[in-house]
Amino acid sequence: MKEEGIIIHTTEQSGMPYAKVIIDIDHEKVDRMFTYKIPESLSDKVQIGSCVTVPFGKGDSLRQAYVAELTDETDFDPARIKEILEIAGGEIPAEVRSLQLAAWMKKRYGSTMINALKTVLPVKKQVKSTVSREVSLLLDDESAKAASREAFLKHQKGKMRAIEALMGGAAVSQSFLTGKLGVSASTLKSLEKQGVVRIDSYETYRTPIHFTKKGSSPLPLTDRQRSIVEDYLSRYDSGEEKKALLLGVTGSGKTEVYMGLIEGMLKRNKQVIMLIPEIALTYQTVRRFYERFGDVIAVMHSRLSAGEKYDQLMGVKEGRVKIMIGPRSALFTPFPDPGLILMDEEHETSYKSENMPRFHAREVAARLCEMTGAGLFLGSATPSVDSFYQAQKGRYLLYRLSERIGERPMPTVSIVDLRKELAEGNFSMFSRRLKKAMDDHLARGQQIMLFLNRRGIAGFVSCKSCGKVLMCPHCDVSLSEHRDRMICHYCGYEAPRVSTCPDCGSSYIYGFKAGTAQVEDKLKKMYPRARILRMDADTTKKKDDHEKILSAFNDGEADILIGTQMIVKGHDFPGVTLVGVLAADLSLFASDYTAPERTFQLLTQAVGRAGRGDMPGEAVIQTYQPEHYAVKLAATQDYEAFYEEEIGDRQLLGFPPACHLLAVLIAGREEEKTDAFARRLAGGIREEKTLPDRFTQMGPAPASIGRIRDLYRRVIYFRSSSLELLMQIKDRMEEYIEEDAAAKDEYLVYFDFDPVSGF
Ligand code: ADP
Ligand code: ZN
Ligand code: ZN
Questions:
Q1: Domains along the chain?
Q2: Among 105, 130, 394, 572, which has the highest number of CB atoms less than 10 A from its own CB?
Q3: Best substitution site from 230, 262, 405, 410 to test ligand 1's pocket, by max atoms within 8 Å of Cβ?
Q4: 421 CA distance to ligand 3 centroid (A)?
Q5: Could you tell me which residues come within 8 angstroms of residue 265 by beta carbon, excluding any fewer than 6 positions away?
């Protein structure tokens, strides 16, 4: 029985009579495909990704096109379909690869070819380039100091700030001086006239990051770091094994290992894709890479403008860019010869797409590596149970970094039982233990981070007299209180906050208050002199908000940072000595098999934020379930003990990675019809005689949220040790839906393999 390792042939030999082609792959509308007939003579040569010559348009002018899909049916009159003329040379390997990858994703995850293409082919939209100016100092250190002192005495603050900013010897962008430092353009002009500075202007590509210090020399690696880099590179060169997982505790120097590997790849003339979860993709993280590698880096993230994205791609095409840093979508960077895909924080659930195709970046990366011969290097302090399982099975090399750099101790952690706290009469959201710790650390002038699990704090509104909970009229979820309004987090429905219960008329109706804003209010009362920053969805609406809050905290402009998940990911604040987790509660995730894994990860990462500088750290975890293994083992930062517990459970209960799961979500407007359709689909598979019966089927049942946006949701689960079998089930279902024209318009059907969150 074949368990793992799916083989899918995407180089489907034609045999098919028609090819759908993309004429202009550089156009923003890449999803416009044209159908051509494949002549007999070419039928065994045309493949997905082939570059072909076709007659196009009214005058039948000859154009080069890429084959994106092969098919045996078409909606057009076959007599009027033109033929492919020949296979053209001039294939661009990166684009062929993208098309093949799209075809693979369509088949692997279940999606239309168009959606798969939109995922892999980046939007290309040309935008004008801009001019930028860089300022550098022409004075030596001595005279610069004198000039700055003179400016200070003359109260020429702008001049003084400019000179001081430039004293390191590096050039600084003018926009930085006029923006962040508030130096006026006329001040700079006059400094230029006096021969104090030089201003160079040139046309730039809009790199969204601006650093002037480049090529800083690398830290000498520790023995352990060096041996990992060398071992991996030598195995890479021998072609022996190219997939690896690095288990390294927080602060153990994983990033330096990544940089060592990147350097090795650049030496081999290869390009590198460095995946980082969007949430951890900050100035701080990127700066370290930029300082080391300079201009060959480009950064991709969802907040870039179309013009910025275009420039990045041009940089890749022209060979200026050799390292792409970014979230999931950076995977699709069309590098000519990628050598390595690095995935930091590989356990992050954001690596899984929530849109069709619902792909996991780790799986697509592995596929890309097979296609290109590149290596895959995963790193995390808390690897996904899946990856560690693969490593245990010998499918990944396993490296460990078990100690923090510089013998910095791991923080001391205490667990507080919130039930006991209540029983003993403390109704505050801060336990006595945490309160005492905050007093101490504030008194010593040290920084504190307080973390709230966003999903644990739904501020639902309920009546204390009759128990009514106010629900969204369109979804089966409770409304959350936001200041004087109530909103639905799923569909965005909003209503003014009610002051009396709509059922019993009681005025004792209020929100369960434990959101970040409430924490902030409480803290302000407790510590009127403390400077407090808050980072959550409300305070990070604008493009740079994230960055501003983090750098203010980093610069010591605040004593306490309060936040949700956002603040625990990969940020390195040396000043933080105390981390408080306000509610490490699990109960709200309980229906989901990944709940313990995610709780363990969050707590470990949160605890790991403390004591990254010279002062030792401390963490306090408040919880209602102090005896749960995910909480206890996070407190001791013992990943491998956690893994053992967890994999035991998964094997017993038949959850991934011990088994594969396919979740099929069916959504429709009318509850009964949707239910009937789901049952029809499920029944169809049950009665399918051609499928081997090595799978179990559960459902259909209402999804964990039975209704969203007025769509009723049913879910069917399939479980099997064979991924291929689950893919066959998916194919079969797609066929049923395809045959049922009415159903196709009436219901939405999503497939999710090994789901990382419940439907
Ligand atoms: P991780 O990514 O595992 O959390 P980092 O790579 O951020 O760890 O390293 C933690 C800290 O240790 C950083 O401040 C980093 O500059 C420092 N560090 C890492 N490697 C070395 C080294 N070889 N020598 C000195 N300091 C190092
Ligand atoms: Zn009531
Ligand atoms: Zn709603």
A1: 18-120 (3.40.1440.60), 130-204 (no CATH), 224-405 (3.40.50.300), 408-456+515-650 (3.40.50.300), 660-753 (3.30.70.600)
A2: 105
A3: 405
A4: 35
A5: 271, 272, 339, 340
Amino acid letter for position 404: R
Q: Which ligand is nearest to the CA of 572?
A: 1
Taken as a whole, the chain contains a residue count of: 759
Pure H helices in 627-722? 629-635, 639-653, 671-687
Which ligand 1 atom minimizes the distance to the CA of 220?
23
Strand, helix or coil for residue 160: helix
504 Cα–ligand 2 center, Å: 4
When mean pLDDT is compared over 458-462, 606-610, 666-670, 698-702, the highest value belongs to 666-670
Distance CA 108, CA 523 (A): 50
- With a 6 Å cutoff on the Cβ, whether 613 touches ligand 1 is no
255 C-beta closer than 6 A to ligand 1: yes
Residue nearest to atom 22 of ligand 1 (CA): 221
Which tokens in the block code for residue 304?
């870039």
* Contacts for 585 with CB less than 8 Å, ≥ 6 apart: 453, 456, 623, 624, 625
pLDDT over 50 (residue 5) = no
Kindly state the helix (H) or strand (E) to which residue 560 belongs, with its residue range. Answer: strand 560-563
Pairing of strands 130-137, 197-204: antiparallel
Q: How far apart (Å, rounded) are the C-alpha atoms in residues 2 and 685? A: 21
| C-alpha to C-alpha distance for 433 and 581, rounded to whole angstroms | 12
Strand order in the sheet with 86-87: 34-37, 18-22, 61-71, 51-56, 86-87
Q: How far is the CA of 458 from the centre of ligand 3 (A)?
A: 14
Question: For residue 598, how far is its CA from the centre of ligand 3 (angstroms)?
Answer: 25
Q: Which of 17-21, 455-459, 747-751 has the lowest mean pLDDT?
A: 455-459
Query: Residue 441 has which token pair?
Result: 């650390």
Phi, psi values for residue 566, rounded to 5°: -50, -35
Q: Say how far residue 63 (Cα) sits from the centre of its chain.
A: 38
Least confident of 305-309, 528-532, 654-658, 723-727: 305-309
What DSSP character marks residue 320? -
What would the pLDDT profile of 506-555 be if each residue is shown by its tens digit?
A: 888 776 556 778 888 889 999 999 999 998 777 777 767 777 888 888 88
Which residue, by CA, sits nearest to atom 6 of ligand 1? Answer: 253
- The pLDDT tens digits for 124-181 are 555 555 566 778 888 877 788 888 888 888 888 888 888 887 876 667 777 777 776 7
State the closest ligand 1 atom to the C-alpha of 225, by its place in the atom list counted from 1.
23
Do 240 and 373 touch, CB atoms closer than 8 A?
no
Helix then strand count (H, E) for the chain reads 22, 30
